[in-house]
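Below is a filled-in request sheet from our internal design queue. Each sheet records the structural input a requester submitted and the sequence that came back. We keep these sheets so that new team members can see what a complete request looks like end to end.

REQUESTER: design group, bay 2
PRIORITY: normal
MODE: inverse folding
CHAIN LENGTH: 222
BACKBONE (tokenized):
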């Protein structure tokens, strides 16, 4: 019987940007700490993703205490303080109102707009953010206490996450803008396939379930 082995740990500070590989991570019912706390949005609040902007995959973000640093090949780095609360903007995911995001430093908006050649604004989840996911283990993408785990303890931690996701949780600071789940555990083969598709210039993103249903209805309607 084959046994699964944790090959890498990666979190994504900004939804849709390149990930940060780590040897250990703090894990809670809402996933890895700092994972998808930030999101890029258009002027109307619609979130930006690699589905429409593949160039986002080449942009990097790194959490440095109470600041975040952005980098990209051939561009100057930018470090800005994290705004945990303050001015807010309405945001939406997959055509649905998602709530509000905390507006971040305007310098970050300018940096991303120049890199993507498209108006973009950076927002962060609000302190009270708490949103249910969907799927077999729907869970929450809200607040949760976290603990420090290394690779050799991740497998047990994922079991804890799955069990904890079956009930609402309170407290802590791990909040995210995950689409539907606290965390994702892809296989190495799947990741190699994604890299191959990206190299070929083909999409690596599957349609959101609700979009697939709408597409089927459109094809079936007279």
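RETURNED SEQUENCE:
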């Amino acid at each position: 019987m084959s046994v699964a082995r944790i090959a890498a740990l990666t979190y994504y500070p900004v939804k849709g940007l390149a990930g940060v590989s780590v040897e250990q991570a703090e894990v809670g019912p809402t996933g890895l700490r700092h994972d998808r706390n930030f999101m890029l949005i258009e002027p109307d609040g619609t979130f930006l993703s690699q589905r429409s902007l593949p160039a986002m995959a080449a942009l990097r973000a790194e959490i440095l205490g109470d600041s975040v640093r952005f980098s990209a090949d051939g561009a100057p780095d930018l470090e800005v303080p994290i705004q945990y609360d303050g001015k807010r903007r309405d945001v939406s995911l997959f055509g649905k109102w998602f709530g509000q995001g905390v507006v971040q430093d305007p310098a970050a908006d300018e940096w991303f707009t120049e890199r993507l050649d498209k108006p973009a604004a950076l927002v962060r989840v609000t302190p009270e953010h708490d949103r249910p996911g969907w799927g077999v283990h729907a869970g929450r993408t809200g607040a949760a206490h976290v603990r420090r785990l290394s690779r050799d303890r991740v497998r047990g931690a994922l079991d804890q996450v799955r069990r904890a996701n079956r009930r609402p949780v309170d407290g802590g600071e791990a909040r995210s803008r995950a689409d539907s789940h606290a965390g994702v555990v892809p296989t190495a083969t799947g990741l190699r396939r994604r890299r191959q598709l990206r190299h070929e210039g083909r999409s690596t993103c599957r349609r959101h379930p609700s979009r697939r249903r709408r597409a089927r209805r459109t094809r079936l309607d007279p």
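SHEET NOTES:
- The longest strand covers residues 96-103.
- Residues 9-185 form one domain.
FILED BY: M.R.
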